[in-house]
Design a protein that fits this description.
heterodimer, A: Rossmann fold, Immunoglobulin-like, 27% strand, B: alpha/beta, eight-stranded mixed sheet
């Protein structure tokens, strides 16, 4: 019996009542069907079960109950389904979002921060994302499916692959182009499954976000994660209750903007971090009489010196997570960048390392609309002995040419239309 | 290389091309100044080659000491385009930004010659609260390289007024061609010595981009940029170009800067941008212009699929910015006196001739003393590459060259 960790899920379309359509799974890695039960699916379920596929009941309570009655497995405790995930893409005005930010960078909808948070809070659980492609009149390109897969896999989740109505229809009819797209989707799923061991890596990042991430702090703290990620500023998550004792090695800055003051042990820990040379960003009203003013003229934060470090106290109680992410990046500076990226106009990145081994991974999900055909460069500090590229263009890794630059290593990549996974050996 | 032409002939040509100036500017009758331009071969950016070559060039111009000793020097960089956009895999210093080693070498020599303070200035498209050094880090430059190059180094993002709290108005002598004055960061006004350093390369609007075109970036984005006046706290730069106000003239500058002289003048950027550049060369005199031609690119100002990285292996420097630009353009196998409609000024007025008429400097290489190898000896044929691109256009852009 497969466990959730090894389930590779496909959302079985409710209209696919013909068991012959299970033939579409041949040659793909899908081994688990997420089914919104209806009685017409009985023959499909029977054949799938006979083929060794795992069948999971999804949908609302009534549908799941009906599915369970028909023999589908319920969602187990060690599987976390994030139903509020989003279709990863450049946000368009059509969905009510701004098309670009103040610095003309496009807004990106991604599930990266959600997966980071889910895995930080439930490290032993498998996380599924159940977003669906945009409906008509949108045309969902193959590239968009691949991006959706990459956006989930990069941060350790699995998208429950859900073809849109157009692809479903064309697949059911045996349309050749649809079958080619389906094959490419299957290949991409297989690639990410081969790199599933990267989930054991620990995130790199010099900025820590300290919060309980719930209640009145939920929106602010989660949006900070989202916006730090959008700046490609590598961060790590520190849950407030345990942050008082968590190791803070490697952090250069901590953000604590929860509405209530931290419990005394946590406050002491945060202040000790700042006094030892770190940057601590906090809400307005943080009392710290011994912190000395600096001459920094900043419109939003009062920067004070405390010990060897700095305390950045918001000047207003009306916090803007965009500005918090931007200001912490500015106050910290780019000196501590874990990677720098060139010719990637709209992208997200995730840098992680094997604990105790000289091995790092830099993953890039590109949403580019400006330079999709440009060769890209990723610079990392320090030396590398080898670098390999995993991309959707081939089944296996390719060696990456490296050039010494500015005290680090520039990795010369081909164009990254959707995804690049770079394996670095130090 | 260039067509020798008398001032009378030139003025006749200008009349035909619509280049004639306002009454005030055309009242200048003295010949435009000339000063020597030093040229030297330099094949690499290795400091061991670069520093002595550059030092020799400065010596041929009379030495740096007389220029910088005890002075505050402002060096206008030429950070065009975004810091994370490269031509292929090439670092920006190999293609369209002046190379950091060249900048550091120049700073080192200036410090050695007694410069009191060196201020690196540029209108970087970064928020006011971001230190300018961060913009360099974004491009993978190390600001510490410049801090080590001289004892007193400052960085100033001139898109903002910063510590001065307000911009400084630079009036254009004789009234100006497009604007009567330009509001700029005070660093451009209160320096004793002003230096422009830039690659030489092609430019889509003004034909060629060199040490003169670099001055276009004196104009702060918060006053002349697309988002000028649209941000209350003046903390964010909206957009990173000057298309609306300066190129197209679709509205006037923000923050109480003076409007243009003649709002009914052409809204064509081929008319406007050369005049703005000429105005700025007159309003902010340049004391030293350094052309980085060791490595550069042909085809555009910022990377695009039509650009080609090239390695002419040459440096040029002069104390007159128009003279230096004229020599550089001649060394690209272009005619620095070419009228509008001809290579390389196919769709724009010739900014060098405009600056010449403002009395800034001669655009006639035949009048300019060259210290070092002759122009023809260091000429790199940008014109041939331009023709090649012209023939290729109509087909798909070529794949990016990889290093």
């Amino acid at each position: 019996m497969l466990t959730p960790e090894s389930w590779i899920p496909l959302r079985w379309p409710s209209a696919w009542a013909d068991p012959a359509l299970l033939g579409l799974l041949e040659g793909t890695p899908f081994n688990c069907l997420a089914i919104e039960w209806n009685a017409a699916l009985g023959p499909v379920a029977a054949k799938a079960r006979a083929a060794g596929l795992s069948l999971i009941a999804v949908g609302d309570d009534a549908v799941r109950s009906a599915g369970a009655a028909a023999g589908l497995a319920p969602v187990p405790d060690d599987l976390l389904i994030a139903s509020d995930s989003v279709w990863p893409a450049i946000a368009s005005p059509a969905n009510g979002a701004e098309p670009s930010g103040p610095t003309a960078n496009p807004w990106i909808d991604s599930n990266g921060w959600l997966l980071r948070l889910a895995r930080a809070r439930s490290p032993r659980k498998t996380v599924w994302l159940t977003f669906e492609p945009p409906g008509p009149p949108n045309v969902v390109l193959l590239e968009s499916y691949l991006r959706a897969l990459a956006d989930a896999a990069t941060w350790g989740g699995r998208w429950v692959v859900a073809p849109d109505s157009d692809l479903r229809g064309r697949l059911a009819r045996g349309d050749a182009k649809a079958l080619a797209s389906w094959k490419a989707i299957g290949s991409a799923v297989a690639l990410f499954e081969r790199r599933r061991d990267w989930n054991a890596l620990e995130p790199l990042g010099v900025v820590g976000v300290v919060s309980d991430f719930v209640g009145p702090n939920q929106t602010m703290s989660q949006e900070i994660l989202n916006l730090l990620g959008r700046r490609n500023l590598a961060y790590r998550i520190l849950e407030a209750p345990s942050a008082a004792t968590a190791p803070l090695a490697g952090f250069q800055a901590l953000i604590y903007v929860d509405e209530s003051a931290p419990p005394p042990p946590l406050r002491s820990r945060l202040l000790a971090f700042a006094r030892q040379g770190g940057l601590l960003m906090v809400r307005a009203g943080w009392e710290q009489p011994d912190a000395k003013p600096t001459d920094m003229d900043h419109p939003r934060v009062d920067v004070r010196r405390t010990g060897k470090g700095r305390l950045a106290i918001s000047k207003t109680s009306d916090l803007d997570p965009f500005m918090i992410a931007r200001d912490v990046h500015m106050l910290l500076g780019r000196t501590y960048d874990v990677a720098r990226f060139f010719n990637l106009s709209a992208f997200l990145s995730y840098c992680a390392a094997w604990p105790g081994y000289p091995l790092e991974v830099v993953q890039i999900v590109s949403f580019a609309i400006r330079f999709p055909n440009d060769v890209a460069t990723v610079w990392v500090p320090g030396k590398c002995t080898s670098a390999r590229l995993w991309s959707l263009a081939s089944d296996g890794p390719a060696l990456i040419e490296m050039v010494a630059e500015n005290g680090g290593t520039s990795l010369l990549l081909p164009p990254v239309p959707v995804y690049a996974g770079i394996e670095l050996r130090r | 290389m260039h067509n020798a032409i008398s001032r009378r002939e030139m003025l006749a040509g200008l009349g035909a091309s619509g280049l004639l100036l306002s009454k005030a500017a055309s009242a200048i009758t003295a010949p435009a100044p000339v000063a020597p331009v030093a040229i030297a071969r330099c094949r690499t950016y290795e400091p061991s080659e670069l520093t002595p070559v550059l030092n020799g060039m400065f010596d041929k111009l009379g030495g740096l000491g007389r220029l910088v000793q005890g002075k505050t020097v402002a060096i206008k960089l030429n950070f065009n385009g975004g810091p994370t956009v490269r031509l292929g895999h090439l670092p920006l210093g190999d293609t369209h930004w002046p190379h950091p080693n060249l900048l550091a070498a120049a700073m080192h020599l200036m410090a050695r010659a007694g410069a009191h303070r060196i201020r690196l200035v540029e209108g970087a498209a970064a928020p006011r609260t971001d230190p300018f050094e961060e913009h360099m880090l974004d491009a993978n430059w190390d600001p510490r390289q410049f801090l080590r190059a001289a004892p007193r180094v400052e960085f100033e993002n001139t898109n903002y007024a910063n510590a001065a709290k307000k911009f400084t108005r630079l009036p254009v002598p004789h009234g100006g061609l497009l604007f009567p004055a330009y509001d700029v960061n005070r660093s451009y006004a209160d320096c004793d010595v002003f230096v422009t350093i830039a690659k030489y390369k092609d430019h889509p609007t003004t034909g060629v981009s060199t040490v003169m075109k670099n001055l276009f970036g004196l104009t702060p984005l918060t006053v002349y940029g697309n988002g000028a006046g649209k941000w209350e706290d003046n903390d964010l730069v909206y957009g990173n170009d000057r298309i609306q106000i300066l190129h197209r003239g679709s509205r006037q500058p923000a923050m109480d800067a003076l409007p243009e002289i003649e709002p009914s003048s052409p809204r064509d950027d081929g008319y406007r941008v050369p005049r703005i550049i000429a105005d700025l060369t007159a309003a902010r005199p340049v004391h030293m212009a350094i052309v980085d031609g060791v490595k550069t690119m042909a085809g555009a100002q910022t990377p695009d699929p039509w650009c080609t990285p090239v390695e002419p292996g040459v440096l040029m420097a002069g104390t007159n910015v128009v003279n230096t630009a004229a020599v550089a353009i001649a060394a690209m196998n272009y005619d620095p006196r070419a009228p509008k409609g001809t290579v390389p000024f196919e769709r724009c007025d010739n900014k060098l001739l405009l600056a010449e008429q403002l009395g800034v400097g001669s655009a006639d290489p035949g009048r300019i003393e060259i210290a070092g190898p002759a122009i023809r000896e260091v000429t790199f044929d940008f014109r041939a590459l331009r023709e090649k691109r012209r023939l290729l256009r109509g087909s798909a852009p070529p794949a990016r060259t990889q290093s």
